[in-house]
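seq:
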Amino acid sequence: MKQEFPLPTLTRSARGLLIEQVALGDVAARFGTPVYVYSRAALTDAFNTYQHALEGRQALVCCSVKANSNLGVLSVFAQLGAGFDIVSGGELARVLAAGGRAECVVFSGVGKSRAEMRQALEVGIRCFNVESASELERLNEVAAGMGKTAPVALRVNPNVDPKTHPYISTGLRSNKFGVAFGDALALYQRAAALPHLRVCGIDCHIGSQLLDPAPMVEAACRLLDLADRLAGEGIHLEHIDLGGGLGIRYRDEVPPTVGAYLAPLLELFEGRPEALFFEPGRSLTGNAGLLLTRIEYLKPGEEKNFAIVDAAMNDLIRPSLYDGWHAVVEVAARDVPKRTADVVGPICESGDFLARGRDLAVEEGDLLALLSAGAYGMSMSSNYNSRPRAAEVLVDGQAVHLVRTRETVESLYALEYPLLSSQL
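struct:
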């Protein structure tokens, strides 16, 4: 019998929880825990929803690599014809290794190094989203040294409140991102005058986990006004990049569908010559993945109970960092009384929790699935407490593909060197 989950390909059967046609218990038995599990069908459906909403438009959907940078996941999007939004040279290397095309890559980020600029120019990316006056000058200098011309857009800060968590709000004048709206015209004029830059677009990104298209529409109106002013100055844009940020359902949020989110934006741009770029991340991968973990101990306490699991804040930091909420589901249905418990990891921090106050019918050794973990899960993981990072698998129908091997403790210090006794 099908049960409603944020992850659309998750169902419950006599075999326990299934992702597509694969039992999560079988995944744990084969690959151990903790392990990230992704659904190829969910990834594909999410991307195709954008493509369908943009049908007939000159548009490019650039998957945000920071949300999930696994090569297996990126290769699914590359095979679907996606573009990619990157923020580092490492992410560019990942995109290329996964089969992505450099000419469909936009390079965002406030701190691009000269080496990263050279790397991107060498392979021929689509556009640099420039975020400061100094970056304009540096990019022109680097391009000149290579005998190349860099395609650029300015990331403009429209000072629109996205009404999201302050840590993932990026379009206010107090944020580090982008250039001030009032400075943009002069900076575009400077960019157009630099001999090794070619102005090709404009970009903005106001924040993440957006649940209402209204702030994005407000920002888009400001971009359109600026684009028209630029045209009046003889600076004609090839594309307008509206960033990403569409939210997903973690708990009880009711985000708009992709079509409903894009509809008022597409209406604004009806009949205009510029191509539209979008940079979705969370809405592509968030509800296409989960974190599978095993209960080590059930620990009753005086004020609260704890389910101590083998995953921790180093595996999934969103709850500790943002107070992010993830649904926790028992993999096997047990006929035992439910108890309310905090789901916590073994890390030596009071902030090491994955969920608080959940009603669980479980015993020690049972598996739990933390849902909506496909975005900003593994990509933000760490080795705190010298914990090897989790394995990652991609499910495709009945097939299971290992797309990242679990780290070993030895691999964590493979690049380190102890001092010899003679050096002490």
